[in-house]
Design a protein that fits this description.
The protein is built from 13 helices and 12 strands. It is an alpha/beta fold. InterPro entries: Aminotrans_V_dom, PyrdxlP-dep_Trfase, PyrdxlP-dep_Trfase_major, PyrdxlP-dep_Trfase_small.
Length: 362
């Protein structure tokens, strides 16, 4: 366990249960960033000449990690940039299905345009609501988070895959920001058409980098308008009008994207089987303990499957008490959001529970 925690110095100071807000910087990523900027300092444009090779390596690493051919991987600064570029490529007559209360970067981006919008409610029966909305509305696009950022409610990939088979003409566009890095994920086998992910959370890759994965069939269904000289640069963007190039019109930051490649390398070294197992084990026990303490809302209590994000009942006073005990978490919605990653421990969960019980006595 010490080996898993050693790359993240923050864990020596705090009980860090806040990956859902921001992932940690690892020593491995920091070392890459220091070396990169030193190279830039002493070599200037010579480093830029290597940009294509580095970014090609990033694209290939992302594709290998998430099972998507590298010529269907686009690199983008963040989720919102990629999602807005996608939406600009859609005809404004399209109907879009959203989840009510989903992440604002999804709902605001869609509602700020002229699309017809329909909604499915987020509660313990989320899947039934989605299926019913699909049957009734027959949307052209279904845009959603795989894991909800406030409640931690999670849609299973099997559910999404089966739903896609029933509605093959609907474009399934997923936000993987609160999902990717928590379990093994095979994009090409998921049924999703597009997945966009900012990587500063569960992938621990820092800020300024994200990626988009595309199904082969998407290219003929949207027409992105963004274009720039960088749209034609690189091994996988060699011809004019290249699809992924429309999502990469300007120069990409080799510091940020090199950080992503390095962070994925660390996860590969740890092993996603171990990551998935540790997160699942911690989350299962945490849910049982939170249930016993009556800290969870009904819509989470009544669901069998859940992510590693929990929103427990609590106010600002409790939040400040947890902070005073060096427990790092976030206030979200009406409660306090707790999130467990693979480097968290049973002992940290015990400490959280002990602290919560002490607060109850005050």
């Amino acid at each position: 366990m010490k080996k898993l925690r050693k790359p993240f110095p923050v864990l020596q100071q705090y009980t860090y249960l806040n990956t859902a807000a921001s992932g940690l910087l690892s020593e491995k990523v920091m070392e890459f960033r220091q070396d990169h900027d030193l190279d830039f300092l002493i070599s200037g444009s010579i480093l830029k000449d290597k940009q294509g090779e580095l970014l090609t390596g990033v694209r290939e690493t992302v594709g290998e990690f998430f099972k998507c051919a590298p010529n269907r991987v686009a690199l983008t600064p963040n989720f919102s940039y990629g999602f807005n570029t996608f939406l600009e490529g859609l005809n404004k007559s399209k109907k879009v299905l959203l989840l009510s209360g989903d992440y604002p970067s999804i709902t605001w981006a869609v509602s700020s345009r002229e699309f017809e919008i329909c909604y499915a409610e987020i509660d313990e029966n989320l899947e039934q609501h989605i299926a019913a909305s699909m049957e009734k509305e027959h949307p052209d696009v279904f845009a959603f988070s795989i894991v909800q950022y406030i409640s931690g409610i999670k849609l299973s990939i099997d559910f999404l895959k089966n739903l896609k088979q029933k509605f093959p003409e609907t474009l399934f566009v997923a936000d993987g920001t609160q999902y990717c890095g928590t379990e093994i994920f095979d994009f090409d086998d998921s049924g999703l058409d597009v997945l966009i992910c900012s990587t500063y959370k569960w992938l621990n890759a820092g800020y300024g980098n994200a990626f988009i994965l595309f199904n082969e069939s998407v290219q003929g269904k949207i027409a992105p308008k963004a274009v720039g000289f960088n749209s034609l640069q690189g091994k996988y963007k060699a011809h004019e009008g290249n699809f992924i190039g429309k999502f990469e019109p300007g120069h990409l930051d080799t510091l940020s994207f090199g950080s992503l490649k390095t962070a994925l390398g660390l996860l590969k070294d740890v092993g996603m089987e171990l990551v998935q197992e540790r997160i699942a084990t911690l989350s299962k026990r945490a849910k049982q303990e939170f249930l016993a303490m009556e800290l969870l809302g009904d819509m989470v209590v009544k669901r069998d499957q859940h992510s590693s994000i929990f929103n427990i009942k609590g106010d600002t006073q409790l939040y400040n008490f947890l902070k005073s005990e060096n427990i790092i978490c976030s206030q979200r919605g009406d409660g306090i959001r707790i999130a467990f990653h693979y480097f968290n421990t049973e002992e940290e969960l015990d400490y959280l529970l002990k602290t919560l019980r002490e607060y109850e006595k005050t």
